[in-house]
Amino acid sequence: MIVAFSVTPLGVGEEVGEYVADAVRVVRESGLPNRTDAMFTSIEGEWDEVMDVVKRAVAAVEARAPRVSVVLKADIRPGVTDGLTSKVETVERHLGA
């Protein structure tokens, strides 16, 4: 499964990069395939391991912010691995055609 999620600290002002970095650090240290862009962090793995990482990432932000907002989208497709790469490669292949 692939989960794309965004963790936003609330009540800490407009500059939230250091708080978001706390969440991304948890994801990167998990060892699961992941990718971060300007809006979301995507992580790939089995349900329990991915959701555990998301929970720990949220907790890292929650430890420093009075309120946390989470947006999460999941692609649950049993038997598919390396979706973070293969899905993008498929789109790129169609763009190049």
From TrEMBL:
Superkingdom as given in the UniProt entry? Bacteria
Pfam families in UniProt: Thiamine_BP
Q: Gene3D superfamilies attached here?
A: 3.30.70.930
Q: What range(s) does the Thiamine-binding protein domain occupy?
A: 3-92
Family to which the UniProt record says this protein belongs: Belongs to the UPF0045 family.
Output the NCBIfam families linked to this UniProt entry.
MTH1187 family thiamine-binding protein
Q: What is this protein called?
A: MTH1187 family thiamine-binding protein
Organism of origin: Streptomyces tanashiensis
